[in-house]
Design brief:
The protein is built from eight helices and four strands, in the order βααβααβααβαα. It has a single domain, classed as Nucleoside diphosphate kinase-like domain (Alpha-Beta Plaits, 2-Layer Sandwich), CATH 3.30.70.141. By secondary structure, the chain is α+β, with helices and mostly antiparallel strands. Bound molecules: ribavirin triphosphate (RTP) and magnesium ion. Ribavirin triphosphate binds next to strand 4. The site of ribavirin triphosphate has 10 residues, from strand 4.
Length: 149
């Protein structure tokens, strides 16, 4: 089953949006298989955002992600990687559609509340970067026949 990595960033945690994010993914029909709150080390933040290391915003992005607790999670479901990105919305909250998490709750690109893996391969490496196997439980909710044909 496809998995993705979702992180509520420090701004989302401070603003009390952890429950809202979890609720939106649960209500959609995805299954939570791992969840933890942690304060991110510089090393982990730099690995997670390594693809952006030459970008002008890299330093402030790492500063921000390490500035307070985040909530890291892994979700499972058919097409979950692309679907979660749609639920999250565009990178800039001002252009993100209403109805998306960033579109409903944010205004600034540097405070866009949430991260979601951008492709299946990225999701696999991010899940492995953030979680040990023992922290993840694969389970099948009993309502599965009401979500999948
Ligand atoms: P994320 O990785 O956090 O899920 O966000 P994303 O895929 O939508 O956007 P990405 O291009 O991967 O950028 C990573 C994060 O860097 C910050 N950013 N700031 N100031 C800027 O121009 C700028 N561009 C990107 C954002 O917080 C973005 O989420
Ligand atoms: Mg990204």
């Amino acid at each position: 089953m496809e998995r993705t990595f979702i992180m509520v960033k420090p701004d989302g945690v401070q603003r009390g949006l952890v429950g809202e994010v979890i609720q939106r993914l649960e209500c959609k029909g995805f299954t939570l298989v791992g969840l933890k709150q942690l304060t991110v080390s510089r090393e982990l933040a730099e690995s997670h955002y390594a693809v952006h290391k030459e970008r002008p915003f890299f330093k402030s992005l790492v500063e921000f992600i390490t500035s307070g607790p985040v909530v890291a999670s892994v979700w499972e479901g058919d097409g979950v990687v692309a679907s979660a990105r749609k639920l999250i919305g565009a990178t800039n909250p001002l252009t993100a559609e209403p109805g998306t998490i960033r579109g409903d709750f944010g205004v600034s690109i540097g405070r866009n509340l949430i991260h979601g893996s951008d492709a299946i391969e990225t999701a696999q490496s991010e899940v492995a970067l953030w979680f040990e196997d023992g922290e993840l439980s694969s389970w099948k909710p009993s309502i599965t026949p009401w979500i999948y044909e």
